[in-house]
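Title: Comparing notes on inverse folding

I've been comparing how different people in this forum approach sequence design from structure. To keep things fair, I'm posting one structure and asking everyone to reply with a full sequence. Here's the target:
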C-alpha cells in the first residue's frame, strides 16, 4: 500500500509543476500571476508534508501573500502607464519549451541515477532554539491572528487599488 505522504507529494508536485507550466505558457499576465500564487501554495503544501510547518507558513505569508500582491501591483501600474493590457507574445516560445524539457529530463535523470545516502532524523537538543520557540508560537498561539492580519492587509491593498483605479477613470 502506498503511504499517504507519497500520494500527497505526488499530487502537490503535480499541482506545483502544472501551475508553473501555466505561468510560463499563458498569455494573460493576470492569469500568470494567479497561477504563480497557486504554484507557491503547492510548494507550501510540500513543506507541510515534509514536516517543515514554519517554512510552509513563511511560504504562504511571504510568497503567496506579499510577492504575488507585489507582482499584481506591478502589472496594474505598468498597464496604467503603458495604457494597454499586457499580452505575452514571444517568438522564442517553442525553443524555450524544448530547452526546458531537455533540462527537466537531465535533472530527472540525474536525480533518478544518484545513490542517495539514508539519513536519520536529527536529534533535538535539550535546550530549544529561538527558531523552535518562534515557530511553535507562530504555529500555535499566534497563527490565527497572524493570518487574519495578513488577509486584512491584503483586502486593504486590493481596496486601495480599486479606489485608485476609479479615480483614474
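Reply #1:
Here's my take.
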Amino acid at each position: 500500500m502506498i503511504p499517504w505522504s507519497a500520494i500527497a507529494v505526488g499530487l502537490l508536485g503535480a499541482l506545483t509543476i502544472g501551475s508553473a507550466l501555466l505561468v510560463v505558457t499563458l498569455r494573460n499576465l493576470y492569469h500568470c500571476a494567479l497561477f504563480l500564487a497557486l504554484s507557491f501554495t503547492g510548494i507550501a503544501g510540500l513543506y507541510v508534508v515534509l514536516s517543515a510547518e514554519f517554512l510552509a507558513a513563511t511560504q504562504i505569508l511571504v510568497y503567496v501573500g506579499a510577492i504575488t500582491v507585489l507582482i499584481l501591483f506591478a502589472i496594474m501600474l505598468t498597464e496604467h502607464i503603458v495604457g494597454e493590457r499586457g499580452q505575452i507574445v514571444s517568438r522564442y516560445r517553442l525553443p524555450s519549451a524544448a530547452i526546458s524539457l531537455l533540462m527537466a529530463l537531465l535533472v530527472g535523470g540525474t536525480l533518478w541515477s544518484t545513490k542517495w545516502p539514508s539519513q536519520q532524523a536529527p536529534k533535538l537538543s535539550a535546550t530549544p532554539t529561538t527558531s523552535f520557540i518562534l515557530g511553535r508560537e507562530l504555529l500555535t498561539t499566534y497563527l490565527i491572528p497572524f493570518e487574519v492580519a495578513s488577509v486584512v492587509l491584503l483586502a486593504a491593498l486590493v481596496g486601495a487599488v480599486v479606489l485608485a483605479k476609479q479615480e483614474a477613470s
